[in-house]
């Protein structure tokens, strides 16, 4: 069996049983990703020799038979520290030292038997829903004139191309929709865990630091990795009970200040695919309704302010003259806002926006909300990092219209592929759940995928569909 293209669960099961070695699995993935220049653009740095040495160690572990991610090759966004590497944050301005230790999430992955094969490209400081870096423009494996989204575009490409079965990306407020924006562009599963702003004790810096998100080609792989990161038991994916599900194709946040017109308008195929998903859920026995959440009068301000403040907080450690022009402008807006003394109210706005969302779920008795993940095709494969602030703002506002609000609010959300559009790009939807109901959200997401049977990989990847 050729291991590139296998799921994380398939690989781990084979390694635990002795049907394959971690060394063989990792070697095949490294050979595969280095053989294709397009796939290799997903990575800022690869760890060929180190990963093979670490895989050999996994093969000798006495508890190998109990490791949930035994021998699974994993890519980690360059935002996170991996021993021996530099967390570049997608920027030439970063001056972080070589990491002497792994970030906690990386330690947990290794503890579960995973092998880190490389770090993947991101947009600068995790701020933008497009990914290109130093003249390198990763292209969408479904259609080469389109990009891979952002901020963790390299992680999405690594999974979509089959270079790895599992990747870790950036998520949370001020992250341009996080891994869900990337998953939507690349046609993979992207999960944003719940993060509650009320738990940050008025620490806006901690809130805006974000949280890891997960990318894979199956819901079960995402669920397994989430259990590893949270040190919890992996949920058994199964058919959910009858649920009350809302569906809406309306963007939730008004236009960005200074931009005229609606933030995003879904194209006809996006609407059609959403209706297909609603029919599928209805046929599965669920009670489906057309309903749009109201997020309150401060939602637009909170969303834009969190983004700008995140830019300021992340940029202040580095030489701003070396930052990209678009990032300097956004960070300057965030800095002026801090000096204007609204900074202390930012977390409060985020909390109130979350409360409005929770009240909507409760008053309607809804268990899940289903929306588009993108309004249409992802942004073009281009050098967005060299373009001006306004071009990036306009494109980003459209691209992250459906995903960014839930990064601010912090409810668990997952993007899943549901087919292929007429233009050759993946058709995707977003599912948002209630707090504390991640397992139920996984069940619904898996049910949608099982019934709609999308391809796991684009045809050009040469993988089993």
TrEMBL record:
Domain of life: Bacteria
Stretches assigned to the Amidase domain: 46-437
Cross-referenced SUPFAM superfamilies: Amidase signature (AS) enzymes
GO MF: catalytic activity
Pfam families: Amidase (PF01425)
UniProt-listed InterPro entries: Amidase, Amidase_dom, AS_sf
Gene3D superfamilies in alphabetical order: Amidase signature (AS) domain
Family: Belongs to the amidase family.
Identification of the protein by name: Amidase
Native species: Stackebrandtia albiflava
């Amino acid at each position: 069996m050729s291991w590139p293209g296998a799921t994380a669960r398939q690989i781990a099961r084979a390694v635990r049983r002795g049907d394959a070695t971690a060394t063989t699995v990792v070697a095949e993935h490294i050979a595969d990703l280095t053989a294709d220049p397009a796939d290799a653009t997903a990575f800022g740095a690869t760890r060929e020799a180190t990963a093979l040495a670490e895989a050999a160690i996994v093969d000798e572990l006495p508890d190998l038979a109990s490791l949930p991610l035994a021998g699974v090759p994993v890519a980690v966004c360059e935002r996170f520290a991996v021993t021996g590497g530099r967390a570049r944050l997608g920027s030439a301005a970063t001056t972080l030292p070589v990491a002497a230790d792994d970030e906690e999430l990386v330690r947990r992955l290794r503890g579960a038997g995973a092998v880190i094969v490389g770090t993947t490209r991101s947009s600068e400081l995790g701020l933008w829903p497009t990914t290109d870096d130093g003249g390198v423009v990763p292209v969408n494996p479904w259609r080469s004139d389109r990009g891979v989204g952002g901020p963790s575009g390299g992680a999405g490409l690594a999974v979509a191309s089959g270079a790895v079965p599992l990747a870790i990306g950036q998520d949370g407020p001020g992250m341009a929709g996080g891994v869900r924006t990337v998953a939507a562009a690349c046609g993979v599963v992207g999960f944003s865990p719940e993060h509650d702003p009320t738990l940050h004790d008025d620490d806006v810096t901690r809130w805006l630091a974000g949280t890891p998100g997960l990318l894979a080609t199956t819901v079960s792989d995402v669920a397994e990795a989430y259990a590893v990161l949270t040190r919890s038991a992996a949920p058994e994916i199964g058919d959910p009970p009858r649920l009350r599900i809302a569906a809406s194709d309306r963007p939730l946040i008004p236009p960005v200040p200074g931009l005229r017109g609606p933030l995003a308008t879904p194209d006809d195929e996006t609407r059609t695919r959403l209706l297909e998903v609603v029919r599928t859920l209805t046929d599965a026995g669920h009670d489906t309704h057309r309903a749009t959440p109201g997020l309150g009068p401060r939602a637009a301000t909170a969303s834009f302010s969190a983004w700008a403040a995140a830019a300021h907080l992340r940029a202040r450690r580095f030489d701003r003259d070396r930052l990209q022009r678009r990032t300097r402008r956004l960070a300057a807006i965030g800095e002026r806002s801090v000096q204007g003394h609204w900074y202390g109210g930012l977390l409060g706005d985020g909390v109130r926006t979350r409360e409005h969302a929770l009240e909507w779920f409760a008053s309607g008795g809804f268990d899940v909300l289903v929306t588009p993940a993108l309004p249409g095709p992802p942004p073009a494969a281009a050098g967005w990092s060299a373009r001006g602030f306004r071009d990036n703002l306009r494109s980003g506002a459209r691209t992250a219209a459906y995903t960014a609000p839930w990064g601010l609010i912090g409810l668990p959300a997952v993007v899943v592929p549901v087919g292929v559009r007429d233009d050759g790009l993946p058709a995707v939807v977003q599912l948002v759940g209630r707090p504390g109901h991640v397992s139920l959200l996984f069940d619904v997401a898996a049910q949608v995928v099982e019934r709609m049977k999308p391809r796991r990989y684009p045809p050009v990847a040469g993988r089993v569909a």
